[in-house]
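Incident review: delayed structure delivery

Summary: a single-chain prediction request sat in the queue longer than the usual turnaround. Root cause was a stuck worker, restarted by the on-call engineer. No data loss occurred. The affected request and its eventual output are reproduced below so the record is complete for anyone auditing the incident later.

Affected input:
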Amino acid sequence: MSNLPHEPSGDELEGELPTVMDGQIPLGDLLSRVMQAIYAELAELAETMPNMSDSARKRTLADWVVKTKKQVVKLYAVTKWARDAETVQKCMNITAFLMTQNHQFEGAMEGLKYARESLDPARSIILQICVANEYLTPANNRLRNHDLLTSLDVLTTGSYLRLPTCIAKSLIPVTPLTDSQVTQTLKDIEDVIRYRLRMFEVVPVEMSQYRIADGRVYFTVPKLFEVSLCLRGAQQDDGWFFVHVEFLFNMGGDLTGLHEFPRTPAGIMKRHITDEADARLAFYLALPEEAQNNADIPPRPQLPRGVIDTPLVRVYNFLQIMSLSYQLEILWYQAQRMRSLGWADYLTIDMTQDRKVMTISYWIRRPPPLGRQTRIKLPSLGGTITISIIESHGPSQTGRGPARSPRKRVLARLQCRAKLGAGMPSDEVEGLKIQVLWEPTKGALGVNVPSNIMPESVLHVDAGNLDFENLLRGVIERHARAILEIYQSQLQNGQTRTVFSPPGVVTLTKDEGVQALRVHLCADEIVIMTIDSRTGRLTLRDTGDLAAAGRGPQFTVFSDQLNENPQHLVLALMRLRLMTIIDLAEQKAKYLGLQSFRRRNFQTEELHKLGPSTQGTLYIQLSNFPSHYLVLVITDERFRYALITTRIISESMYADMIMEDIAWLDFDRIHSEDIIITAHSSRSDMSIGRRRNSGTHVLNEGEVGAIDTGFNIETAVLRELYSYCCARVAFMNVERQFKLRGIPFTHVNPTSGSPVTLELAHIQSSLARSVPALCVQSQDILSGAPAAEAAMPNIRVIPLNWWSEKNAQVVTSVKLKYVQQPMGKTASTSAIIRPSRRIIYDTTQAVVSFLSENVNTCVDEFLEEWARVSKMVVIAREVAQMAKESSWDDVRLLSFDLQTVEFAYAKDYTVSISCQDQLSPLGGNFDLRFSRCGRLHTRHDRDNEQEFFNPHCDAEPFLRSILRHGHGRLAPSLNRLVTLLRNTLSIVTVLEDIRQESIRKSRSVDTFAKAAGWYRLLNIDQRYAIDFRLMTGQRVAILDASFSVFDQACSTNPAAGAEDMLGLKPIPQFKDIVTDAVRDVISSGSVQPGTVAMIDVGVICHTENVCELGKRIHQRLVSHGIP
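Output delivered after worker restart:
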């Protein structure tokens, strides 16, 4: 091997191997196609997913992610395998080389075998010698005679001297030209081309831009093509031939199919263009000599006399139609690509058979189902775009020819006159162009759009940016804008102009790059109406704020209804506006915790009471007054506010309601400080434009101002209106009670001029200072009431808590004539005390405030509380004056808190007085509780309850009647009660002592009260009894209880009377017992003579002597065997 002159290297040997690409593709192409496919699918999802439901979007996206993940994983595996691609490729090349070599060996063997079998065996040796120089005779498979001369030449010279010329030309290569020869040849042919173009060849003015280089001429037609031609020779009749062409266009938009449409044709496409271009260039040239003798080739046409061949015109016409057709095919391909990306159901594309006219229909509407009939028949498409290749002709006055500028027309004529003379050109220049026409469908989306609104800049195909999607979207955008402009005009100039005509309410704008109609519904609520560029469906949506997130399904329903009948756009927007206004008001009512209703069970004629301009209503029920509603009446321009009083018709089957009363509210005046609410039926409220004595409303334009706030109702505003209505109803209820009783009243403003503290600003409504109070005279409201003289003339009535969620309350304030400070264990050191839940007392001002929880019964509750409090005040005052006026030093006031009065009426004996049911027909009751003060006792053993027992407790039912029967004049009744208590104190104390002594000695003796001044000592076993009767002049009669002081028959026959009537027996020797007892007390000096008077059945003594005399009589009875 070392003796070889040249040993090939490994790279050279590898270069000799054939390249086998069978089943192989470049990794870059695979990556590109996968990425393009993923991008295309994503673009399709972006187009189609907005119209899907939420669950369908999630499911589609999940399926796409799973499928794409599998593709990417496969691509990743292929990328790993591609690391060994070079080694695999080399192995495949070696395998192909070996297979080819094996095939050659097999072919040589088969050839030799065939030759051996075909020839005579005797001549096989000669065949082997002459096989390279002789031919077999076809007739008998015999060889020719030997070529001895050639054999001798080969033997002597080693070469062939007599080879045929054809063999030499086919086997011996031609000597190549040098670089200088090539350069000179190209210069020569360029000179010839330049000469012919300037002197003889008719060049279309559209191809006047050319350059000559590299032995050929390059013609450039902007936005069409660049072609290079060359001459076949330098002779006059040598024609042109086609070299190359490049179409001058650029694809825009989606570049997925860019490789399908190369600018410079190659392969079979170039071969076809070359054949056609050469055929047109040589259309009138004579055929070559060898072709003229071929009968299969038809002869070429001959030029008529006077007609001069213009091959450049023919090639221009051919390449012009080729370029325009090429562009049209690109647009068709892009359109089909859009259909595959989600536009198939809404876009149709038709191409004529000659491929010169393409028709696009967009916004295709699916026909309704067979069983469903629609009342409005809508067009099946929105519009059509026609893209066609047409001829463009100049004005008729300029003669024949394409559409050209005046300058180009002059240049074309001068060229023909200079180069053709009197001759005529064989071909005329064809002026072709791509024309785009747009025709909207009448009635699409419910409107008729004129066809002349589309600007020329939109209906234009730019070869430098061939983008069908851009063209289609431009047409659709302009079409959608025209439709929205018509909608805007209908809203602003139609029947709803009062709503939508103000500036800024309906505006045409762009939302995220899409034409949109922006409609301001109310407050901050805006609806965006757009037309989907793909489907042509109307879409309503909000501005995307969080407050409107819950209204998505509502917009979807309205969008579906609009697409079924776009002619109802105005009505749909009005209905949407009304629902939005109600939603906002209802939402704010819910924020405040108010109960609201969109409709109540009113009949149609009842709703007419709210006025003809009413578009909708929202009823807010007053929580404290269920039969009253604050009504938000929605008109075209603003809210109107009404306070209505309702009643359910009991006779109706469905519980129909009627409006008994309607009051129109003016919030501006309600919110002002000088508001006055009047309740007289003969007058109209300053803020209420109606009459109370009629069921229908009477609106006075001079009294009710216009609300200029539109529908931007704030939560605070709604709260103020609601609070005002609560206050208004509360006043109405209070005033109604006054009217029913015939009590006159006036309005006052108790808070005028007083500052607002921070605490008040937080706990009460801002209207509280604007709402007045009621003032009544004490002589009117307290007429016939007990202790009416204790009140000052003016009584103030103020409703409270109507601004809060709690029940409304009424405070009635009374200033007392008699200032009596609370005292005792229940009194407080504060200036303001609250003895009960419904009474508040200002000790410094002597003002008692009565709180009523029920507005409807506040007057009755006040009168009841007043009867109780006023009596307590009178009792406390009278008790305080008794010590001074009656010289009762031991009478003193112990406790007073407006509900209860406790005082000591003698020594340490006390009574606590309270009252209840003061408004009952019987005059109410007094509750008396008797006790004793512990501070006067000398003994400190408080475990002994007897020391705190007041014997007057047994007479409490009789003593309370003294106050009850004297409730008309309480002061004398109280004096009588105290006098009675003081006078009977000695009686009850001596009886209590006797009872206690009897209990200790186990005697069956009982004491009890028979009346307020009548007490009895009873021997239960023997049926004997002694009565202690209080008489006038502080005298006490001690009598045998078996005798009646009222019945004379019983007095004459006491035994019969006692047995039969009273069930008591006369006390034996009672007169003697009393006489002895009187004698004892007088002799002891405890009773003065002359202060005791004996009678037949007893004795009469002074109250001071009852104790001594009563005890002595009881002792005498015990000594006589009568315990």
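Verification: The longest strand covers residues 625-634.
Action items: add queue-age alerting; document worker restart procedure.
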